[in-house]
Amino acid sequence: MNARDFVKRMLVGRKLSSAQLGETLLPKRIALPVFASDALSSVAYAPDEILLTLSLAGMVGFAYSWQIAAAVAVVMFLVVMSYRQTVHAYPSGGGDYEVATVNLGPTWGLVVASALLVDYVLTVAVSVSSGVQNAKAMFPFLQGNEGLVAAVIVVVLMTMNLRGVRESGSFFAIPTYGFMIGVLGMAAWGLFRIFGLGTHLEAPTAQYTVVGSDPYQGLIGLAAVVLMARAFSSGCAALTGVEAISNGVPAFREPKSRNAATTLALLATVAITMFGSIILLANLTGLKLIDPDGGSHFEQAGVPVEIAHETAMGQLARTIFDTFPVGFYFVITMTMVILFLAANTAFNGFPVLGSILARDGFLPKALHTRGDRLAYSNGILMLATAAVGLVLVYNANVTSLIQLYVVGVFVSFTVSQFGMTRHWTRHLKTEKDPKRRAHMQRSRVINTIGLTGTGVVLVIVLASKFIYGAYLAVLAMAVVFVLMRSINRHYQKVAREVAVGPTDARMLPSRVRAVIMVQEVNKPTMRAVNFARATRASSIEAVLVSVDDVETRSIVAEWDAQQLEIPLKVIASPYREVTGPFLNYVKGIRSDNPRDVVCVYIPEYVVGHWWERVLHNQTGFILKARLNFMQGVMVTSVPYQLASSKYALSRAQRNTAAAWRRPGSGQVRMGDSGREPARRE
Amino acid sequence: MNARDFVKRMLVGRKLSSAQLGETLLPKRIALPVFASDALSSVAYAPDEILLTLSLAGMVGFAYSWQIAAAVAVVMFLVVMSYRQTVHAYPSGGGDYEVATVNLGPTWGLVVASALLVDYVLTVAVSVSSGVQNAKAMFPFLQGNEGLVAAVIVVVLMTMNLRGVRESGSFFAIPTYGFMIGVLGMAAWGLFRIFGLGTHLEAPTAQYTVVGSDPYQGLIGLAAVVLMARAFSSGCAALTGVEAISNGVPAFREPKSRNAATTLALLATVAITMFGSIILLANLTGLKLIDPDGGSHFEQAGVPVEIAHETAMGQLARTIFDTFPVGFYFVITMTMVILFLAANTAFNGFPVLGSILARDGFLPKALHTRGDRLAYSNGILMLATAAVGLVLVYNANVTSLIQLYVVGVFVSFTVSQFGMTRHWTRHLKTEKDPKRRAHMQRSRVINTIGLTGTGVVLVIVLASKFIYGAYLAVLAMAVVFVLMRSINRHYQKVAREVAVGPTDARMLPSRVRAVIMVQEVNKPTMRAVNFARATRASSIEAVLVSVDDVETRSIVAEWDAQQLEIPLKVIASPYREVTGPFLNYVKGIRSDNPRDVVCVYIPEYVVGHWWERVLHNQTGFILKARLNFMQGVMVTSVPYQLASSKYALSRAQRNTAAAWRRPGSGQVRMGDSGREPARRE
């Protein structure tokens, strides 16, 4: 391995196709980071959101951070318990979309899919924004340009994904474990310093008092309930990404479902511990956050002060590692990297979901076939464009973006849990084995509790965040939903239209009449002539539309010189038009021989540069487009490769995922279709 | 004729195709307006440019307007005399481009073509700008928005031309004769009032004195020469469009050349008369113009005054028709309309020249075939975009735009006259008849005088205007020249590459192996199968790339149910890619049977709406694009017309020039190619 390869491998990991990823079964220690980076990364911003929402009540608010954190932990517990059931019931890794579609029907499946698609966009926007906010602890000069920096990072992620960089398990493992070690190590060191060494640790904001905003000030009455609900809703961002493991079951080692369930439990434990640690340390160090847009501010000795916003993670790392800067840099770097990694998982998840939706006819079918990179690229571009728009509009403000987030996640949680209860009910109808029945009934109880829990959270989230931005997320989901349903209806309509009837396979045209389009007498035309002759059509003729008398005479002379024994028909075109007269000629053949089929041969230049395309083939393209509308006509392009085409070919090959199997080796035979080709010589 | 048709006919004239225009031979009284609107319209701005350039010398300058006008008239006489020779020598109407190409070679032809293309853009910009400036006499509220208004008018002209509105002779006749009657009538009425009735007529600006700008003030020394040269150069704008008649000879009635020559003389007489009248009336009524950008301004009793700019035409019409407002409105309206008409002729001329250049391989070949509207549309769009850019950048300021103008015209005049002298010299070498020799020698003398005259003017124009804007025109011509030469070199390179060799017509592939691309079992696929079977290839097989096991099994089952006796090969694609495995399969066939040709049949949906294109055929398109790079492979699209395709068809038909002949009727046979089709049944 040379130095460059080594650096590359360090930076982007070993190149591993998704198929290989599926084949290489993951041990739990690798599966956890692969599927948990998204869920764990939210620990970097969820505590902040709780604290700064509570700041609206002033100093009294922070006292409740414990309760909110506990509530979030309870929801986390419920969700993980529920997904452990899903993991057992759907080892195929279909995810919420499959659960909803199978158990509740395609409409509910589409609801989940719309929610997930919107949430992928928000995952990118929120994760990258939070990464940039945390990076400010190390790079203060980012202050003021957060939106732009976040947009650049989204574009970098997009470019990596467009270029087809795929991560290996260890690529995920390093920063995920790094993040875990960093945060838990920081917590342990902090607690040891406070309780073991008795050091008095004070966060940079400990010296200030926080003045809240009017309606919430003092946290009394209805306002208290509303504020608690808002803090809780924002804290629930910690749950995003938990569902990832249930999608990844097939990648686990045997026993897949059990290992996945264990990993889920592990994830929940780690996430709750990290989450709790940060809240605990924030309380111990007197850390405070404010929400300037919401109306809270810092005061010192009764005088309002303005200081640059620093995340809880940044403040804690600065405080706890005040004597050990390496620790500070490690924690902040790992936080940043895991957040960008979480955004990157959306770049993988979005096209995968798109592919499944395409398979089911809710998105353009081309998205289903992977290799044609174009399709995936479109998904990646769409995701990146939407995310860049969001981070620019919201200037990478996590607090604003979080108002749109979480709705989608809980829509999909709730619908999925509802689907799971139906699943168990359905299976209980046929299951006789009392032991398995008991198991199923237990699972149904857990999923019902999960459904109730996530449903309640969804209502709280919607109610407390609707006017702050959640309505936009709901609107986006509705638009995506309507769009996908329209696409599906179109496909269904077309499918009905093209369904094979009893006679379709028997409608053999009696003869094929070949018509060669001639514009010049040159190698491409000769190739078209030779190919047309090789097909042994019942009649062959060459047709030239004359737009210029002098030119026509010279072409006719050259044609005759070739002694091809194929007549060259010259069609006069007083308007110097090619398409019209040619189409009419073909139409004439068709109406004279209604039971025959006409095959039009068009010589085509294959060129290497985009500008060459402007210079060649235009007439052929227009003609083809119009011939397509004619019944009983097929169009054969006979390509002629110009020398310059090799540039385009090498470009195209570079852009296609490199490895596919040698011809034949990947060929399998199914059914009884493998008959010998019907030779007709 | 109903009311709507009547209004339309009044507005746009009877629809007349260009071919009909050619067939309907024009009497001189119609030919004059058809070909002279451009040349005559310049009378609306050329006198203004002389006057306002002279204003830089202060009051003393205007006294020289007579001399300048006389010089312009002399050049007009020379140019018209010269073109009368061209009209006789080139009755085919090839124009300056043909004269230069034939006599001086393609490089000089290309110089002329570049000059003309750039000048078409300037004709649109200058004419429309002048139209707007003149319109201000009627609509003072246009003041301040000239650039925008001019841009809108260019867009309107563009739209009319994109929609294929073509003018009949009478459409030109009404405003052209209206303009002539208006201006000459105004002149007659004005002279009659001044000399016949003794009325004292004073232009609105007569009361002011003009203070010139420093170097030219008082018109002394070298500055006087420079200023005279500049005024003369701007006045030469009156000559633009004179060459139009020499392009239009074939449209004249017999004797074509003679009638065209007479019309040229007529045009010159009318133009010089109108031009002279305006200068005369301006002198008689004390009309003054200033060039604020150049540095001259109005004063009244020693105090500088600022008044809104009004064109000479506007001021004269206001003064002479002060008691007869109908006359005022008539003259201004006709001036406006003829200027827009002149701009419109560029919209016709630009694509025609483009078509000729395309025929000769200097522009994309597709521009040569007319009917495919796309090609013409591109030319129209390019012209309009460039003109809109100019009027916006220069805010429809005629004085600024005129600095760029005229250069191109005189480049083409000069090169063309040079070509004509060569033409006569060449013909004199072979001509024996003394009478015709005398005639030719006389023509050569005239063209030599013309060459000298236009050459001197070109030098004066270049020298006096270069730093004021002409350098931009020269730069644009250079860019266009280089671009066209590059295109030509590309075509020549390709032509060498594809020239037919001795064996090309004999390289018959031994067999055709048909491969049908299957993605679903439906009507389009069945049609592809039936068409492929009808071609009686030596082997037929259907190929399905399996991206989804479940789906594949169901497709195989449906296939078998059709009992087609064609094997369905299933190619495994572990990467869910279609293109790669399919290409490899075809490559395998090719390398196993190098002397055969593979014909890939791709079923294609023909759809009606653009968004349906996103939903269908993507895989087929990508596959086709890649198959094109393979030697010995042809691709046959088998279109299946969905019900929605009829919308697209009717749209396409609406967009194509309506009339072409019935099949067969336009078919002529040339040479000995009309052999019977080689039937092979």
What does this structure look like?
The structure is a homodimer of 681-residue chains. Chain A is an alpha/beta fold and 681 residues long. Chain A folds into two domains: 22-489, Amino acid/polyamine transporter I (Up-down Bundle); 506-654, HUPs (Rossmann fold), CATH 3.40.50. The first copy, chain A, is built from 26 helices and nine strands. Chain A has helices at residues 3-12, 18-23, 28-41, 46-54, 59-62, 65-89, 95-104, 106-135, 146-162, 169-196, 221-235, 244-247, 256-284, 312-320, 325-359, 373-393, 398-404, 407-430, 434-465, 470-498, 523-534, 549-562, 579-592, 610-615, 618-627, 645-654, and strands spanning 209-211, 297-300, 303-305, 512-518, 539-546, 568-572, 597-606, 633-641, 667-668. In chain A, the strands form two sheets. A five-stranded parallel β-sheet of chain A has the order 6-5-4-7-8, sandwiched between helices. In chain A, helix 22 (549-562) links the parallel strand 5 and strand 6 (568-572). In chain A, helix 8 (106-135) packs across helix 16 (373-393), helix 8 (106-135) runs antiparallel to helix 17 and helix 9 packs across helix 15. The radius of gyration of chain A is 32 Å and the shape is elongated. The model of chain A is unreliable at 1-23 and 655-681 (pLDDT under 50).
